[in-house]
Amino acid sequence: MSAPSWRDLLREGAAALRAAGLGEDAQSDARRLLEAASGLGPAALMARKSEAVEPALADAFAALITRRAAREPLSHIVGSVGFWTLDLIVTRDVLTPRPDTETVVEAALAAVPDRSAPLEILDIATGSGAIALALLSELPSARAVATDISAAALAVARNNAAHNRLSERITFIETSWADGVDGPFDLVVSNPPYIASAVIDTLEPEVRDHEPRLALDGGPDGLAPYPHLLAEARRLLKPGGSGVFEIGYDQGEAALALASAAGAAKAQLRRDLAGRGRALVFGFEGAQGTPQD
Ligand SMILES: C[S@@+](CC[C@H](N)C(=O)[O-])C[C@H]1O[C@@H](n2cnc3c(N)ncnc32)[C@H](O)[C@@H]1O
């Protein structure tokens, strides 16, 4: 029997992932795993699609497909993920940054009147560093403080800052939320854990079995972190500064009520492309936040 071509390998890999329940991600995940196994980019893969594959490479690819079929996250297998315009290192110590969280970055940027200003940013519960680093990449004179309670997550975030040449403008602090942090800040952003505890065991295996529970569990109704985070934003924001917190797609009304209870002057939701409120945007008295809807 002749050796399989790259195209055959990709087709078989995608079929195995489809059989494992990966649906519409099967093809793109198989392609990404073939890139990882071969060290080749998309264009080089395209150019080789009819050529026969070396047996060692076919074995290496099969091993990656087996891991993905067992529902290990793609980001853990390849070790990174694209977020905003950045490439971020991902390990099992951090939440894999999601496209949803780009709504927080967009909302924070929309709230900034002058992108060249020397802004001070606080990212509470930074995980991989995704939000803070994306903002620093867009705001050339800004500096950030990023906190997390997990030392292991902060080690990943530090590596991501270095990997994206942003280390000089970010300081990492291991603490609970913003305990011990002094402001004031122009922007306070956060993507805290917001999944209701009882829902976690119903999530996809990639999340349920592989992501840190500390990054997911938002207490009985998923909203437990927000009252404290809102109070901290109130303490730490400059007059005219803006807060942007990610929320679950069904938490918009509850989040607006919490913001109002915390004394926020102008709270509103930033919506994703599907029209779901995914970020709570707020300021306090004297704030000059930009309307988001
Ligand atoms: C949903 S993840 C968000 C990570 C990152 N900001 C992002 O958007 O991808 C939540 C993060 O909150 C952190 N965390 C949980 N409890 C915390 C606490 N009490 N203080 C600070 N960070 C906490 C977790 O370690 C995790 O990194």
TrEMBL record:
GO biological process entries: methylation
Main enzyme class: transferase
Residues the record lists as binding S-adenosyl-L-methionine: D148, W177, N191
Annotated keywords: Methyltransferase, S-adenosyl-L-methionine, Transferase
Domain Methyltransferase small per the UniProt entry, residue ranges: 119-197
UniProt xrefs under CDD domains: AdoMet_MTases
Protein's UniProt keywords contain Aminoacyl-tRNA synthetase: no
EC number: 2.1.1.297
Family matches, as SUPFAM superfamilies: S-adenosyl-L-methionine-dependent methyltransferases
GO molecular function: nucleic acid binding; peptide chain release factor N(5)-glutamine methyltransferase activity
InterPro entries in alphabetical order: DNA_methylase_N6_adenine_CS, HemK-like, N5-glutamine_MTase, PrmC_N, RF_methyltr_PrmC, SAM-dependent_MTases_sf, Small_mtfrase_dom
Positions annotated to bind substrate: N191, P192, P193, Y194
Domain of life: Bacteria
Catalytically driven reaction(s): L-glutaminyl-[peptide chain release factor] + S-adenosyl-L-methionine = N(5)-methyl-L-glutaminyl-[peptide chain release factor] + S-adenosyl-L-homocysteine + H(+)
One Pfam match: PrmC_N
Domain Release factor glutamine methyltransferase N-terminal: 8-79
Function: Methylates the class 1 translation termination release factors RF1/PrfA and RF2/PrfB on the glutamine residue of the universally conserved GGQ motif.
The family this protein is said to belong to: Belongs to the protein N5-glutamine methyltransferase family. PrmC subfamily.
Protein name: Release factor glutamine methyltransferase
Organism: Alkalicaulis satelles
